[in-house]
Structures are given as C-alpha cells and as structure tokens.
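Saturday, quiet lab. Running sequence design on the structure tokens for the scaffold JK sent over.
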C-alpha cells in the first residue's frame, strides 16, 4: 500500500456564537486541499453542551460535547444519521477543527455575537460568498466573525478516509435539498 500524502487545511469561520447552555455556533468550514487549488465549503449549525456544566469550553476535546444539527455542502443538507466509519471520522475532524477555533476565539476574547435567524444567516452567507471566492476565511473575520485555521495531515487509515470524505463532499450521501421557509 502506498503512503497517503493528502494534506488539508480546515479554515473555520464562526459567524454566530450563543454563549449560553447549550452553546450554539453557526458558520462555515472551508476545506483546502494542499495538493491542488480545490476549496470545499461546508455550512454548519452546531450545539455544544458541556457535561460538567462549567459554561466554558476548555482544552479537553470530546466529540460527544458537539452535535451538528445542520451540515450543508452548497445547498445540500448532509444527513447526519446512520454514518459509516469514514463519515463519522470526517464529522469528528470537523468537530475538532471547530473546537480548536473556539479555543482560539476565547483566547482572543472575541465573544461578541448573540443570535441570528435563518434569513439573516442566509443574507450573511450571500455577503461573504464573493470574498470566499477570492481569498481564505481568515481575512473575513474583521466585522463578520472569527476565523482560525487547522492544518491536518492524516497518518492512519481512518483519518485518511475522513479526509477523502471531506474532499468529496460526503460523495456517497444522497443529499436532501435545503428548504427555504
């Protein structure tokens, strides 16, 4: 078996953060394939409920604390039930990237967001789309949110499968069209 050399960069942009239990975060991940110019966007809504009820996110990462209620690739909703091992590993990687971004956000004390409804979220996504086409998410944080980046080079078969899932937009999922209210 040949050595897996795929490396990705996961840029996370937090557009909305609600800092009350359960914590709620909305934003997007931009997956950048280091071996090409390919960029893939995932929009998300995630809840974080700490089991120790300390009302803070700390260095101890547990994927069980994070629950994606919505994950979209373009306008396609990715079903998050009945995940196989590769898809579950891909979700784990996204949760970890979100966790690292939140820790960095807390270190820089950028907890300035409250809440946003679906219409405002859609308007914000439309506002950042042109900027996403031109550059990386970390340049968007001024006035829009908070961004951080994580470089990820998988060494094990499971994490290699996770990277493949992320780069193929969970290819074998049957996507559900996003409904607009």
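Result came back. Writing it out in full:
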């Amino acid at each position: 078996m040949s050595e897996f050399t795929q490396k990705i960069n996961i840029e996370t942009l937090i557009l909305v953060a609600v800092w009350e239990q359960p914590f709620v975060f909305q934003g997007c991940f931009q997956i950048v394939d280091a071996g090409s110019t390919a960029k893939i966007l995932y929009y998300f809504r995630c809840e974080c409920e700490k089991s120790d009820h300390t009302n803070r996110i700390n260095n101890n990462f547990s994927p069980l604390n994070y629950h994606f209620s919505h994950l979209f690739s373009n306008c396609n909703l990715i079903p998050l039930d009945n995940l196989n091992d590769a898809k579950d590993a891909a979700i784990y990687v996204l949760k970890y990237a979100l966790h690292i971004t939140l820790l960095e956000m807390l270190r820089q004390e950028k907890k300035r967001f409250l809440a946003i409804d679906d219409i405002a979220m859609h308007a914000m996504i439309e506002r950042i789309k042109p900027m996403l086409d031109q550059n990386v998410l970390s340049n968007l944080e001024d006035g829009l949110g908070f961004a951080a980046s994580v470089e990820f080079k998988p060494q094990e078969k499971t994490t290699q499968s996770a990277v493949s899932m992320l780069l193929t937009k969970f290819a074998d999922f049957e996507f559900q069209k996003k409904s607009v209210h």
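Notes for JK: The mean pLDDT is 78. The chain has one domain: 8-177. Ask whether to fix the surface positions before the next round.
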